[in-house]
Specification:
This protein is α/β, with parallel strands linked by helices and 154 residues long. The protein has a single domain, classed as Rossmann fold (3-Layer(aba) Sandwich), CATH 3.40.50.1000. Helix content is 42%, strand content 16%. It has five helices and six strands. A six-stranded mixed sheet has the order 3-2-1-4-5-6, with helices on both faces. The longest helix has 19 residues.
Amino acid sequence: MTDKSQISIFVDADACPVKDEILKVSYRHGLKVYIVSNQWMRMEVGPLVQKIVVPDGPDVADDWIADHIDSNGIAVTADILLAKRCLDNDAVVIGPTGKAFSPDNIGMAVAMRDLKAHLRETGESKGYNPSFSKTDKSNFLQALEKEIQLKLNA
């Protein structure tokens, strides 16, 4: 069994729609959380939550997370390249909709990201992203709880 004091949740927070849910789950389990962003966020936090405000710049928050996460970490991000970097550090990665990234699916996710970027650049796609739903939030909560339980029982 893993000691819960070793487990940390790293949140790519600037555009994360599930910050409040992460905090509720982390309080319930007594887990350390790092809220990493480029700007100060108004959030009520407890003693296990650390807000990390990094300087403006491309990928500065991603760099902080990738430099600090390890195999006891759970990353929450929609950024596929950050997800890959966290997986390279043996961390667990969950998207805000509950999608788990893994070594088995990250290659395809990176390829699809690159293809979509190319289609947007050539004007063949408008880059539509579906809105965040209650189902997404529920799926995320289930995925986060599952990964915490797996780490606690490892």
